[in-house]
Specification:
265 residues; alpha/beta; D-Maltodextrin-Binding Protein, domain 2; three-stranded mixed beta sheet; 10 helices; 20% strand; elongated
Length: 265
C-alpha cells in the first residue's frame, strides 16, 4: 500500500481587483454566495456588513475560477463546502466544478491571476504565492474562531498546528484529512498540506526499483522534510512543516521496507 508524507503547507487566497479598495473582509458564507452568483454586486448588504466604513461600488462582481482540473479548486471548494451547506449540496468539493453561467474560467493559477489583474471588479481564488508575486490584493478571511485573518506563512502554519493532533499514521486513512476552517485565533481558514505518496514496500513489480535507488529516495525524502529541505519552502511562500508533522514523517520513513527489511535504522 501507499503511505502519505506531508511535505509542505500552502494557502489559497480570495484575490480581488476592486478599484479604490485595497482592504476587504469576507467570511465563508458570503464568499460561497459570491461564487454561486447569489451575491452579484460589490455593495451588497452582506459584503457591506463585513466592511463597515468601506466605500463599495455599485458594480457587478466578475468571478474568476480555474478551467482545468486543479488542486487549488479542490482546496477552495472543500472550504466552501464546509462553511456553506448550500454550496456543499449544489456544487460540493472537486478538482473541477460546474460553476454558474457567467463565471470566467482560466487555466492555471497564473491564468486566474492575470484575469483578476486585467478585470476590474473581479474576484477569484489563487495560491498565496501568485497573489504576492503579482501584487494582487486578497481578502482577510473570517476564521473558525471568528477572527479576520490575513494569509501568511505564520497563519498558514497556525492552521496546520491546530490539526496535528488529528493526523493519522503515514499508512493510515488520509481520505478525510484536511486543515480547512481550522480552530485557533491565528489560523487562516483555507490551508492545505501537499503530499508525497510512495509505496510502503519499495520492492515490487510496479516500481522495479533496486535497493540503491530505494535508499537514495528515502535519503532525499528525509532531507526534504527536515530543516535543509524545508528552508526552500519559505522563499516560495509555502510554510515549513510543524515539528510534530516532521516527527510523524520520521516514523513513516522508518517504516518503509525493501523486500521486507526496513531501509532506515
Amino acid at each position: 500500500g501507499l503511505v502519505h508524507i506531508p511535505e509542505t503547507l500552502g494557502a489559497v487566497v480570495v484575490a480581488f481587483n476592486l478599484p479604490g479598495v485595497t482592504s476587504l473582509k469576507l467570511d465563508g458564507d458570503t464568499t460561497a454566495k459570491i461564487f454561486m452568483k447569489n451575491i452579484t454586486v460589490w455593495n451588497d448588504p452582506a459584503i457591506a456588513a463585513l466592511n463597515p466604513g468601506a466605500t463599495l461600488p455599485d458594480e457587478s462582481i466578475a468571478t474568476v475560477v480555474r478551467s482545468d482540473s486543479s488542486g487549488t479548486t479542490f482546496v477552495f471548494t472543500g472550504y466552501l463546502a464546509i462553511v456553506s451547506p448550500v454550496f456543499e449540496e449544489l456544487y460540493g468539493q472537486g478538482k473541477t466544478v460546474a460553476w454558474p453561467n457567467g463565471t470566467l474560467a482560466q487555466s492555471g493559477n497564473s491564468g486566474v491571476a492575470q484575469a483578476i489583474q486585467g478585470t476590474s471588479y473581479s474576484i477569484g481564488y489563487i495560491e498565496l504565492a501568485y497573489a504576492l508575486e503579482n501584487d494582487i490584493s486578497f481578502a482577510q478571511m473570517k476564521n473558525h474562531d471568528g477572527q479576520f485573518i490575513t494569509a501568511s506563512l505564520e497563519t498558514t502554519a497556525a492552521a496546520a498546528a491546530a490539526a496535528v493532533p488529528t493526523l493519522p499514521a503515514g499508512d493510515g486513512d488520509w481520505s478525510e484529512v484536511h486543515v480547512l476552517d481550522a480552530t485557533g485565533a491565528d489560523s487562516y481558514p483555507i490551508v492545505t498540506f501537499t503530499y508525497i505518496l510512495i509505496y510502503k514496500e519499495l520492492y515490487n513489480e510496479d516500481t522495479k526499483m533496486n535497493k540503491t535507488a530505494a535508499e537514495t529516495l528515502l535519503d532525499f525524502l528525509w532531507w526534504a522534510v527536515h530543516d535543509d529541505g524545508q528552508a526552500f519552502a519559505t522563499p516560495l511562500q509555502y510554510a515549513p512543516l510543524p515539528d510534530a508533522v516532521v516527527e510523524l514523517n520520521e516514523e513513516t520513513l522508518r517504516s518503509i521496507t525493501y523486500n521486507g527489511d526496513p531501509l532506515m535504522d
